[in-house]
Write a structure and sequence with these properties.
Helix 2 (23-34) packs parallel to helix 3 and helix 5 runs parallel beside helix 6. The chain has helices spanning 10-14, 23-34, 54-67, 84-87, 128-134, 167-179, 190-193, 211-214, 219-230, 242-248, and strands at residues 3-5, 40-45, 73-76, 96-98, 143-145, 256-259, 265-270, 274-283, 295-302, 313-320, 323-325, 331-333, 338-341. The radius of gyration is 22 Å and the shape is globular. The relative contact order is 0.08. A four-stranded antiparallel β-sheet has the order 6-7-10-11. The protein has a four-stranded antiparallel β-sheet with strand order 9-8-13-12, with no helix packed on it. Strands 1-2-3 form a three-stranded parallel β-sheet. Strand 12 (331-333) and strand 13 (338-341) form a beta hairpin. With 347 residues, the protein is an alpha/beta fold. It is 24% helix and 19% strand.
């Protein structure tokens, strides 16, 4: 198990508790103290932009790299931004983190300390757009969502009278970013984040349950199952197929497609329980190299719509001898032109 360790929250740098005078001593202590532990990933920053103290963070990173040049370092950015906006070309930054949570499409500006619409692009709930932007730089670095919308936290973060982000939102954020090419994903829970216990009185951010209760939320079993299933794709991680998502998603149909880089596996995800009718539009690869052909499909409508708050339906398909097939838990009507996302109970 690897631990992502954030040694000092960004506000300590912003408030000059840590600055150029004392960061060297602190970073030397960290590097020396944890040098023998290979399973630590350093996360600098912490909900701050670069101008909170860019040179302090750079000095800290340089000292940590001195102790172990191979240890990974990244940066936790301000809300709805990415570390790539300020540190992408820095040698110490091994991969980017972006923070896509915790606001809806209509919450660009709320008059709160974490507003950012006037300074950076605002993507709303479209977590995949951060992946697209980070992958658009000439120098490629991995990227992932370090803080999507947390389960059980109010939309917009600050007003507990607002609707809450629920388990289906958590899954949607994960699928949208990972299928766009993110290197991984982070799960966040309001209760677990603050280790809330009812005995301590009122918690923060409208927390509704204890951290112990939150540990057993049903989505966690689903996400473990989803991760296990996705890992079955022979070539590993799905490739970036966001162009297809952009082209064929809309108010009535949203889905994501992940295609393995060897061309042998295809992952389909829909936030609806429904039947999607498909029409082949092109072959991704030919038979060169011994791999079978795979159809990329255009989905033309929902035949049997269900409420849009379902976000737990996905399918993993493999192609053998020109025929689409799937594990027993999921259904692909092969070789017909329908993909069925059945409602799954008790995952």
């Amino acid at each position: 198990m690897y631990l992502g360790v954030l040694p000092a929250w960004g506000s300590l740098v912003k408030d000059r508790v840590l600055d150029q005078r004392n960061i060297e001593g602190y970073a030397e202590f960290l590097g020396s103290r944890f040098q023998k532990y290979p399973n630590i990933i350093w996360i600098l920053g912490g909900d701050v932009r670069w101008d909170a103290g860019a040179e302090v963070f750079r000095k800290e990173a340089g000292i940590l790299k001195k102790y172990d040049p191979e240890r990974l370092i990244t940066y936790h950015p301000f809300g709805r931004t990415s570390s790539s906006l300020w540190f992408h070309e820095d040698q110490w930054l091994d991969f980017n983190l972006f923070q896509s949570g915790h606001r809806c499409y209509d919450q660009a500006s709320l008059g709160e300390w974490d507003d950012n619409a006037e300074k950076e692009d605002f993507f709303g709930e479209d977590s995949w757009r951060y992946v697209e932007r980070d992958h658009g730089y000439e120098r490629m670095k991995p990227t992932l969502d370090g803080e999507p919308s947390y389960e059980g936290i109010p939309q917009g973060l600050h007003n507990s009278r607002n609707p809450y982000w629920e388990e289906w939102d958590v899954r949607r954020y994960a699928y949208w970013s990972v299928f766009a090419g993110a290197a991984g994903h982070t799960y966040g829970s309001n209760a677990i984040m603050q280790f809330y216990d009812e005995a301590e009185g009122k918690g923060a951010y409208g927390v509704r349950e204890s951290w112990r209760e939150a540990m057993h939320q049903r989505h966690r079993r689903h996400d473990l199952r989803a991760a296990e299933s996705i890992s079955q794709i022979p070539s590993g991680n799905p490739g970036n197929s966001q162009e297809d998502v952009n082209k064929h998603s809309g108010a009535d149909l949203e889905y994501a497609i992940g295609i393995s880089d060897k061309g042998k596996g295809i992952v389909l995800y829909s936030p609806f329980s429904c039947v999607l009718r498909s029409m082949p539009v092109w072959n991704l690869i030919g038979r060169a190299g011994g791999y079978p052909r795979i159809e990329a499909c255009r989905f033309e409508g929902i035949v049997q719509p269900f409420p849009s708050h379902f976000h737990e339906y996905y399918v993993i398909g493999f192609v053998e001898k020109g025929r689409r097939k799937a594990p027993a838990d999921f259904l692909i009507q092969a070789p017909a032109d329908e993909v069925l996302f059945p409602e799954k109970k008790g995952l």
